[in-house]
Specification:
The complex is a heterotrimer of chains A (327), B (265) and C (283). By secondary structure, chain A is α/β, with parallel strands linked by helices. Chain A folds into two domains: 4-246, Rossmann fold (3-Layer(aba) Sandwich), CATH 3.40.50; 250-311, Alpha-Beta Plaits. Helices cover 38% and strands 29% of the residues of chain A. Chain A starts with a strand and ends with a helix. Chain B has 265 residues and is mainly α. With 283 residues, chain C is mostly helical. Chain C is built from twelve helices and no strands. Chain C has helices spanning 11-29, 31-40, 43-61, 73-90, 95-104, 108-112, 118-147, 158-184, 193-206, 218-226, 234-240, 249-281. Classes of the chains: A alpha/beta (327), B mainly alpha (265), C mainly alpha (283). Chain A binds chain C through residues 16, 18, 21-22, 24-26, 28-29, and chain C through 21, 24-25, 28-29, 31, 34, 135.
Chain lengths: 327, 265, 283
């Protein structure tokens, strides 16, 4: 049985229409119009225990809203979500003891206290035994290299250090399901890498089920075998990351270098879309079904030194997918 | 019982955290203490000026009025110590979507948001209010039995919870009206009603203040107990009312949470 | 901040207007909050009126004169109501705490890099609040004054109206400048939120909002007559009620203007000193 089951999950927000300017604001005092925003629209998926799934989508696509519904923070407008057999929106204590949510944009640590105080409070709230607490704490602070920072005021920590403690605070009770919402947002490259590696190791070691949202492709690529792509509230893809490219990209890239450097751009143009061009080297974007024919043409008509056929980079594919969704 | 102990323990822990936090701002603590003291002195001057013009107000003499003032002060300070900050913060948390982490903790969410911050200056101040009460009772020549003192304590606690309920309900309204910091100011404004004897108000307002907006229950009942201006029925009424209000907060909190939008900053 | 990109000469003023008008919009978006605020603002008035009634009643029963400080019960009601108009101008809630917070949390940088003067920004911001307040007050005050029409024993002369209007300008200036100065204390002290209550209380008392200043013991009111705070409440009320003798109207205003000037100078000085300190510490 899957650990997370989501069926036709939908969240609709009603927001007030604002007319521009001061006059509009005055008018808004007396008479208001509302618009509906379908933040999450009929999304279904299942996740098995131990999986690490990435949610991919541009800002406002509905990734975070979905996670919040899985956490019981938001009530779904319609549809169903079940996590470990619980309905999240009922917010049963038994459920809340078994999952954790980390949000890159919000913090739960006490600002004016050392991180260890917040951690200890969490331990007591979750009812974690002293011994288990000490063990997790040692392990995590070691792994994330923040042991020395335990006694420092949270307000004096860097963003990356704070994020690490946020992670620890959420893992003290050894959740079975871990929801990570943009855990690397705003961090520098090194901190991003640290956290990424930690998540990977944690997932492998503990077999915790993890959902990760991020708009850094690097995060998703490094961590997730499976991705769910969400755009405008709709699920538009669910499967292996590599398959995203196959599904959404109708083209491949052919990189070719020539023996003598006097090939002009015009000569190449009929063969495909010339993305890069120097006299000795060119990159062509060619529809999938014509890759073979085009390579043949290149090899027969030009003196080719080297030829290389690649998929379009995933960032570009994803970017294209999101752009198309906008139209 | 075990749950109660756990919640008491957590309350203690959060209060300890606030204490550690407060220690960083010692100067502020001292200023707060003297501020509140000044507030008390100002009320005292006010009563002094009023009673300079007349010997009795609505049948209460000066020292009876000061018992009422002291009682009201103790209650207000205890409320502010435990709940006021939390209620004000709650309106912001609802509006800015900062409730998220409170909602996922395996513990009563209302408890968590209501008791997170403690204001220690107010706790110290409430003891000053108690001294004022004792002084005024001495002037009036009234003694208090142990049973009377305990009952007074219970009534004070009940009043604190009534204040809490009202403010909490107002904060939770943010779920529906989007912003309610003006509503929070109501505390200071409703609070005025409880500073005086109920008899200065006309009939309709008096009835209102004994029931729907129970500002007179809050102050007149405990103070009335001390200076023997109270019939026993009012004590039961006060407790029943407190329980009713508290129950209502639980209900409206659940209703409100369904409207929570968790806006991201 | 769209306006900040304009560079023409009169855009300097336009910029503040945009800040001002967007603030107002933001406030109005939360309709219920404002309506409740406007209605419940009058609750303290209710308690005060009943308390004074009980006091005057106590005097009547004991056969004492029906005048307190030269005021009848009706005068007292009018005084306390007019106080709302005066404080509607002079009170600028949130100014002290906002300024001190901007300083303490280092948010000042946000303003320092923009081509706007921070203190003027604050003035505009508060004016926006006042605009909304008065927008709603225009709906609530007339019925209240109509209800109390029999309590007014004195119809102000044109001259008194004029002096009253000027005194309201003084009221806003003193309130605003004073609150800014207190807020700027955050340049020197880390945490002043507690201190703000002291100031608010002093204002409450010394402006005559709690008790008309002339009823206070002689040694107190002699002093408070010359203090700046009376201009935030007591003087505008008394001027409109005709309780200030004709020949004293101008001197009262002059002292008020003097305070405005002193406060203006002081606040500029504090700002310059504070900013030096702020940048030295690194914000």
């Amino acid at each position: 049985m899957p650990i997370i089951e989501v069926e036709h999950l939908t969240k609709i927000y009603r927001t007030q229409k604002r007319l521009p300017g001061l006059g509009g604001a005055v008018q808004g005092l007396f008479n208001r119009e509302y618009t509906e925003v379908r933040a999450v629209d009929d999304v279904s998926f299942t996740i098995e225990e131990g999986e690490l799934v990435g949610f991919l989508g541009p800002n406002g696509a509905g990734k975070t809203t979905t996670l919040k519904m899985l956490s019981g923070i938001l009530y779904p407008t319609s549809g169903k979500a079940r996590v470990m057999g619980f309905t999240p929106s009922e917010r049963k204590n038994d459920y809340r003891r078994q999952f954790a949510l980390v949000m890159g944009q919000k913090n739960q640590l006490w600002w004016d206290l050392p991180a260890q105080e917040s951690l200890y409070l969490n331990k007591e709230i979750y009812g974690v035994e002293d011994e288990a607490y000490q063990k997790v704490l040692d392990e995590m602070t070691e792994l994330l290299q923040v042991k020395k920072l335990l006694g420092i005021m949270v307000r004096e920590l860097s963003l990356g250090e704070r994020m690490k403690f946020e992670l620890i605070a959420s893992l003290l009770h050894r959740p079975r399901v871990l929801l990570l919402d943009e855990p690397t947002i705003g961090l520098d490259v090194v901190a991003q890498k640290n956290i990424r590696e930690f998540i990977k190791e944690y997932n492998q070691k503990t077999k915790t089920t993890i959902i990760l949202t991020s708009h850094y492709m690097n995060d998703i690529q490094a961590l997730c075998d499976r991705v769910v792509v969400i755009n405008h509230g709709h699920k538009i893809f669910d499967g292996r990351l590599d398959d995203v490219v196959e599904k959404f990209s109708q083209s491949k890239l052919i990189t070719v270098s020539f023996k003598n450097g006097n090939i002009s751009k015009d000569q190449l143009a009929p063969l495909g879309n010339v993305l890069e061009y120097t006299q000795v080297k060119a990159v062509l974007k060619v529809p999938r079904d014509q890759v073979k024919k085009t390579s043949n043409d290149l090899l027969t008509n030009f003196e080719v030194d080297d030829i290389n056929i690649e998929e379009v980079p995933i960032e570009e594919v994803i970017e294209m997918v999101f752009k198309e969704g906008d139209q | 019982m075990k749950t109660l102990l756990k919640y008491l323990h957590l309350t203690g822990l959060m209060m300890r955290n606030c204490f550690v936090r407060e220690l960083q701002f010692k100067a502020n603590f001292v200023v707060r203490f003297f501020t509140e003291l000044m507030w008390l002195v100002m009320q005292f001057i006010y009563i002094q000026v009023m009673y300079g013009q007349t010997g009795q107000i609505a049948g209460w003499n000066k020292w009876e009025m000061i018992v009422l003032m002291g009682t009201n002060y103790v209650i207000a300070q205890l409320f502010e110590a435990l709940f006021y900050d939390n209620c004000v913060r709650l309106t912001d948390q609802i509006r800015q979507g900062d409730l998220d982490f409170n909602l996922i903790k395996p513990i009563n969410t209302q408890f968590l948001v209501s008791l997170r911050y403690t204001d220690y200056a107010s706790i110290v101040n409430s003891s000053v209010g108690l001294a004022v009460i004792l002084f005024a009772l001495g002037k009036l020549g009234i003694g208090v039995s142990l049973g009377g003192a305990l009952l007074f304590g219970a009534l004070v606690l009940n009043s604190v919870l009534i204040y809490y309920s009202i403010l909490f309900i107002l904060s939770v309204w943010t779920f529906w009206i989007g912003r309610s910091n003006n509503l929070m100011e109501l505390y200071w404004q409703f609070g005025q009603f409880s500073r005086y004897p109920g008899d200065i108000y006309p009939w309709l307002l008096r009835k209102l203040l004994w029931t729907l907006i129970p500002m007179l229950v809050v102050s007149n009942v405990p103070a009335g107990l001390l200076i023997h201006k109270l019939q026993n029925g009012w004590i039961f009424y006060g407790f029943a009312l407190g329980a009713g209000f508290l129950a209502f907060t639980v209900w409206i909190w659940q209703k409100g949470l369904q409207r929570y939008r968790s806006a991201s900053s | 901040m769209i306006a900040a990109t304009k560079t023409s000469a009169n855009s300097a003023f336009h910029k503040y207007w945009v800040i001002l008008s967007t603030r107002t919009q933001e406030d109005m978006a939360y309709r219920a909050n404002y309506v409740f605020g406007a209605i419940f603002r009058f609750l303290p008035l209710v308690t005060m009126i009943f308390l004074w009634w009980a006091v005057y009643n106590g005097r009547k029963e004991s056969g004492a004169s029906p005048l307190i400080g030269g005021m009848t019960y009706e005068d007292m009601v009018v005084y306390n109501t007019l106080m709302y108009v005066a404080r509607g101008f002079s009170s600028v809630p949130g100014t002290m705490s906002d300024i001190s917070k901007d300083i303490k949390d280092g948010l000042l940088n946000r303003y320092l890099i923009k081509p706007i003067n921070y203190l003027w920004y604050q003035v505009m911001y508060r004016l926006a609040h006042k605009l909304v307040f008065w927008y709603i007050a225009l709906l609530t005050f007339p019925p209240i004054f109509l209800l109390m029409r029999n309590y007014f024993s004195h119809w102000p002369t044109l001259w008194e109206w004029a002096v009253f209007v000027v005194s309201l300008f003084i009221a806003f200036s003193i309130g605003m400048l004073f609150c800014s100065m207190v807020g700027m204390l955050a340049f020197w002290f880390l945490e002043i939120s507690g201190f703000l209550f002291v100031v608010m209380m002093l204002e409450f008392f010394m402006s005559g909002q709690l008790i008309p200043l002339n009823i206070l013991p002689v040694y107190l009111h002699r002093f408070l007559f010359y203090a700046p705070f009376g201009y935030e409440g007591y003087w505008p009320c008394m001027i409109l009620m005709g309780k200030v003798p004709q020949d004293q109207l101008v001197p009262v205003l002059l002292v008020g203007f003097l305070w405005v000037a002193v406060f203006y100078g002081l606040s500029r000085w504090m700002w310059n000193m504070g900013l030096k300190r702020y940048s030295a510490v690194g914000g």
